[in-house]
Specification:
The strands form two sheets. A four-stranded mixed beta sheet has the order 3-4-6-5. A two-stranded parallel ribbon has the order 1-2. The protein has helices spanning 2-20, 30-53, 61-82, 92-113, 126-140, 148-164, 169-193, 199-213, 216-223, 227-247, 253-267, 274-291, 298-319, 324-346, 349-352, 354-380, 400-415, 421-441, 447-450, 453-471, 474-496, 498-505, 514-518, 520-531, 537-553, 565-574, 596-603, 617-620, 622-625; strands at residues 28-29, 88-89, 559-560, 607-611, 630-633, 637-641. By secondary structure, it is mainly alpha-helical.
């Protein structure tokens, strides 16, 4: 209990330090900046966790508390030295919008997971593996693989453990998933809020906020993909940072640190998103610093080194240290280029041959991106991309409606010779998607991975579409208004199910359900909520009882049930066991010994789980099972004591 309270106190102190850290002399929106402060703290935790594990210390809320204290003390030192802190104003309108997002999150959680969040109800089985990885981190304190969201899951598990106990860690996991959904909604509102200037943009902003949130972010939560949701969240955060860098007239070194931790968290969240996002950021910042005539400044140099090179190195070091040797040539080349640039700068060569050096520098960055992608990412990731999986598949229908404002936004930027971060990153994501589609066609990649990019595109399309709608004036604004009203009417028709009823009941009157294609992700979410998840309340209750036995007796409780991989994984992962421990011959009627007692004694099993009505091995060994005392029974099955 003390550790949980200490972590909460130090986290509040660290957040207060981040919020009060003096950045400028004008008052800022306290509601929106709190959301940004929370994101800064989360990405800092990702960095701190990686550094904590280097000397062999466990990663838990205890060690993270000291990293919180460090940030709080550093911020306090700066505040006292400058004798001032950042000032804020409170925005009731933003508080109401964020409060409504919170209410929507709670309602979805109650509908999906129950009033007490007691059912691990997801429509895809990825969720249970993420739960197991987060639980393993909470128990062992060792980081494994992409750990950004597992770290957040672990924090919720350990903080809530004194109240709910380890048996109910699945509830803490559900709360962390709801937190991710809420964070995506709040941060996206904070992002679009920067472009809301009048009542028209307010109305459009609120509508697009909910259309955005109830699309792919909700799909991510219902399926339990998690890492895709964290990738969306960090994409929004990166857009926020880049926009703030663009808006500031003078250089701010704090932005470099925010960019560094954000890119590190993004790389440790989902590696597949990294190439397009990183290259998009690089291209945008190169053009921006060129435009400001500060391309060969110390600030730009450290912006690229700390913002991109350091996160890449730390990511590989934390997640796949065996691949560090692949980075050595890239690091050596980078240091050589840095030395040459410093030498040329001393000789004032850069000022005399600005265009030539600019070309060489850009070519060098492009070569570094290619080498990093080719020799690190391809070897670490792409070898695993041939496998396929279950995911919502819709090629482009969900994005069609927003193509018109996005194209207008692109044309506006071209006409005014502006370079926008969202458009740049979107262009890189589209190029990356085309490459992935080519790999799918030649059989080098499964479509499962191609459709994951849709989650990232959802953020970028909505961001660019809103920018165009909010900034439109004159005739363009009137055309867009008519377009949006027409689309809203079509969306209302979709929600009423009128067209769907005509299609299903009177097919000769309606050739297809067109609205389901245009708004397919919402239909998928509606169907998923109505259908429920793979785990029922009876299953969850049984899992809780088995988990109690596993923890109390320190024993292995075998699964005798329907031979479906995902059902077996749900059982073992939610009861703190590993499916790999299950001997397949226990459920195999052809096993030569036909002596179930001998098998159970060899495994040292004190209890077994038997699902009701599944037949198979149960029917074969029914006389033996009937002699075992029942520890717990419900409609799903029996928890039997082996005697």
């Amino acid at each position: 209990m003390f550790t949980s309270i200490w972590f909460i106190v130090t986290s509040i102190a660290a957040l207060a330090g981040i919020m009060l850290f003096p950045r400028n002399k004008k008052k800022e929106n306290g509601v929106l900046q709190t959301a940004a402060g929370v994101m800064a703290l989360i990405t800092y935790w990702v960095l701190a966790a990686g550094l904590i594990q280097i000397p062999g210390l466990p990663v838990n809320i205890g060690t993270l508390s000291w990293s919180n204290l460090l940030i709080a003390l550093l911020a306090c030192f700066v505040i006292l030295k400058k004798r001032r802190g950042q000032t804020y104003f409170f925005s009731w309108s933003d508080a109401v919008v964020i409060g409504s997002v919170f209410v929507v999150t709670v309602l979805i959680g109650v509908i999906r997971y129950g009033v007490n969040l007691d059912v691990f109800a997801y429509s895809q089985d990825d969720s249970v593996r993420h739960f197991y990885y987060a639980s393993s981190l909470a128990q062992s304190g060792k980081l494994q693989g992409r750990y950004t969201l597992y770290l957040i899951n672990m924090i919720f598990m350990q903080v809530l453990d004194p109240v709910i106990g380890a048996v109910n860690w699945h509830r803490a996991f559900l709360i962390s998933e709801l937190f991710l959904f809420l964070a995506i909604g709040v941060l996206f509102w904070a992002l679009i809020r920067t472009h809301i200037k009048d009542r028209y943009s307010w109305i459009i902003g609120i509508i697009m906020e909910y259309l955005f949130l109830l699309g792919y972010p909700l799909l991510n939560m219902l399926c339990g993909f998690e890492y895709l949701g964290s990738g969306m969240l960090l994409c929004i955060w990166l857009l926020w940072i880049l926009y703030k860098i663009e808006q500031k007239d003078r250089e701010n070194w704090l932005d470099i640190l925010l960019l560094m931790t954000a890119n590190l968290a993004m790389c440790n969240s989902y590696t597949l998103f990294a190439p397009a996002l990183l290259i998009g950021e690089l291209v945008y910042l190169i053009v921006l610093q060129n435009k400001r005539k500060k391309f060969y400044s110390w600030y730009t140099l450290f912006l690229f080194l700390l913002g991109f090179l350091v996160p890449g190195i730390l990511c590989v070091w934390f997640v796949a240290p065996d691949y560090m040797k692949m980075l050595l040539p890239l690091l050596a080349a980078g240091m050589a280029v840095l030395g040459i640039l410093l030498w040329l700068n001393r000789l004032k060569f850069l000022r005399r041959h600005y265009a030539l050096c600019n070309f060489l520098w850009t070519a060098g960055i492009a070569a570094a991106c290619y080498l990093g992608f080719r020799y690190v990412l391809m070897d670490v990731v792409v070898n695993y991309l041939r496998t396929d999986g279950s995911i919502y598949r819709e090629p482009y229908g969900n994005f069609l409606f927003w193509v018109f404002p996005v194209v207008l936004f692109g044309l506006r930027n071209i006409r005014k010779k502006q370079f926008d971060a969202g458009l740049t990153i979107m262009g890189c994501v589209l190029v990356f998607a085309v490459w992935m589609l080519y790999c799918v066609f030649i059989g080098e990649m499964g479509t499962y991975y191609f459709y994951k990019l849709h989650f990232l595109m959802w953020v970028l399309v909505y961001w660019c579409a809103f920018r165009e709608i909010a900034s439109a004036t004159g005739a363009e604004k009137r055309y867009l208004t008519v377009y949006l009203v027409t689309g809203f009417v079509g969306f209302c028709i979709f929600l009423t199910g009128f067209e769907k009823n005509l299609y299903e009941k009177q097919e000769y009157m309606w050739p297809s359900n067109l609205s389901a294609s245009l708004f397919g992700v919402y239909q998928e979410n509606i169907d998923s909520i109505q259908a429920g998840g793979n785990v029922t309340r009876e299953m969850q209750t049984m899992y809780n009882h088995v988990r109690e036995v596993v923890d109390e007796q320190n024993t292995f409780v075998p699964y005798f049930g329907v031979e479906l991989r995902y059902l077996k994984e749900y059982y073992y992962y939610l009861t703190n066991q590993n499916p790999g421990w299950h001997p397949e011959h226990l459920n195999n009627a052809d096993y030569p010994s036909f002596d179930i007692m001998e098998d159970l004694e060899k495994l040292g099993c004190k209890y077994i789980f038997v699902e009701k009505g599944y037949g198979g091995t149960y029917e074969e060994y029914k006389p033996v099972f009937e002699w075992f005392p029942v520890r717990f029974e419900n409609e799903y099955g029996w928890l039997l004591k082996v005697e």
